[in-house]
Specification:
single chain, mainly alpha
Length: 451
């Protein structure tokens, strides 16, 4: 106990020294101030995604190695997105009842325990239950983190805070995939490593001086109103869920059946995620200049072509072509959701945008819950090409619907369009981070600088 006491004192001294250095940097570079004020939250997100972001890939690969049927692998993946959907609806009342710090600690502890439980016993039904629990916990963690980030971000700095959040999230997820390589050392090590990172994510939150947000409710907008306002935005969000749910569930299985080893599979998954980060901005900026529907159509076309390119490169092309197609797939498919949000928001009043974005997240989650089973069924019919054939089919269907909406509807006047903004596909709380949300949508709570 005495050693633990001395260790805690040393960690606090280290934090004070880093805080003093951060204050000097923020004085010299004002743009860093908004990022440094939430650095503990960003570190928690990075560690959390490093541990949990590759679990879908790991679980699918283990089930595939155990000769589980493709439909069974898809069902286990569906359990996670079902938990994520339920958690997105039910986590907020828990956070409001017990507070952000206690809720965050509870969700992270349960997520870490469930991650370790995979190594105890391999059974598809048992793992499906664990994946459902994982989804609930991840939704709860993101509800805490995103509402906390919103509390810290002033209207003028929401864009900077949101960009930092997305970088931490995607980089953690991309780097975490390399823990797959630990399977070659010992089968249980990836689960242990993931649990360690997830457990460590609570430390920056536990030691932070940032005041927890006040309790509040997120506004809602009916799905009927959303569809009447922006049919393409609704359909696009749902089909993006189908596409990315299928990708996270079965893309790694597809790569392994093509003959890639674990290291190459991890590289492919990471390249897709990083490609999604890099290409979103140029596509978004083009959507600000031209009809947003055209960019949604172009992103759907790019997703379909890249998916077909992955099928071709996996069968006959070099590994470099496979990685290039993967990066392009990530860039186009990851851009679809924020493009649909921006297109929907173009049709709404400023005060309705947070509620609409929250509804679109739920629609995405519902689509993601059905995506793995759709891809698995296609995989059964088309052998290993199924996941990306299903993805190309979904992208093609969205493209056709977008062309029809382009024909029957007029474009939004340029003066009514808001600027494109990358948004996470996590929980309705993420909508509060939108820089274009009204300032009065922020929760009112006491603010403290991270000291």
């Amino acid at each position: 106990m005495e050693a633990l006491h001395h260790a805690l004192i040393a960690s606090k001294k280290t934090l004070r020294r880093s805080d003093h250095q951060a204050d000097c940097l923020s004085t010299r570079y004002p743009m860093l101030k908004s990022i440094l004020s939430v650095r503990s939250l960003l570190l928690s997100i990075f560690l959390l995604m490093g541990g949990s972001g590759f679990m879908a890939t790991l679980v699918s690969l283990r089930l595939e190695r155990a000769a589980s049927g493709t439909l069974l692998i898809g069902a286990v993946a569906t359990a996670y997105f079902a938990g994520l959907t339920v958690g997105a609806i039910r986590a907020a009342p828990i956070v409001h009842r017990v507070g952000h710090i206690r809720a965050f600690a509870a969700f992270v502890s349960l997520l870490s325990a469930s991650t370790l439980a995979y190594s105890l016993y391999q059974d598809a039904l048992f793992w499906a239950v664990l994946r459902f629990i994982d989804g609930l916990c991840v939704a709860g963690v993101f509800t805490c983190l995103e509402s906390w980030l919103n509390e810290r971000a002033e209207p003028a700095t929401r864009g900077t805070v949101l960009a930092s959040y997305m970088i931490a999230l995607y980089c953690g997820q991309a780097i975490g995939h390399f823990l797959l390589n630990l399977s070659d050392v010992k089968p249980s090590l990836p689960f242990v490593g993931a649990s360690i990172l997830i457990s460590l994510s609570i430390i920056p939150m536990a030691l932070t001086h940032i005041a927890a947000p006040a309790q509040g409710e997120h506004p809602r907008l009916s799905l009927r109103r959303l569809f009447a306002t922006s049919p393409l935005g609704i359909v696009g969000a749902c089909f993006t869920g189908l596409i990315l749910g299928a990708f996270y569930a079965l893309a790694a299985v597809h790569m392994r059946r093509l003959g890639l080893d674990l290291a190459e599979t991890a590289m492919f998954m990471s390249v897709v995620i990083l490609g999604g980060v890099i290409l979103q901005w140029p596509l978004g900026r083009l959507s600000d200049r031209f009809d947003r529907r055209l960019m949604i159509i172009a992103a759907c076309a790019g997703t379909a072509v890249a998916g077909i390119g992955i099928i071709w490169a996996g069968a006959a092309g070099p590994r470099s072509a496979l990685l290039l197609c993967g990066a392009l797939f990530g860039g186009f498919s990851f851009a679809l959701y924020p493009l649909c949000v921006a297109h929907t928001n173009d049709h709404l009043e400023s005060g309705e945008r947070v509620a609409a974005s929250g509804g679109l997240v739920l629609l995405y989650s519902v689509g993601a819950a059905f995506g793995p089973m759709g891809a698995a069924a296609t995989m059964v019919l088309m052998n290993s090409d199924g996941p990306f054939a299903f993805i190309a089919l979904c992208a093609g269907a969205t493209l056709a619907y977008g062309l029809w909406r382009q024909y029957v509807g007029a474009p939004i006047p340029a003066d009514l369009k808001q600027s494109y903004q990358i948004l996470p596909r996590t929980t309705p709380a993420s909508a509060m981070l939108d820089p274009y949300a009204p300032a009065d949508d922020k929760l009112d709570s006491p603010r403290e600088e991270e000291e």
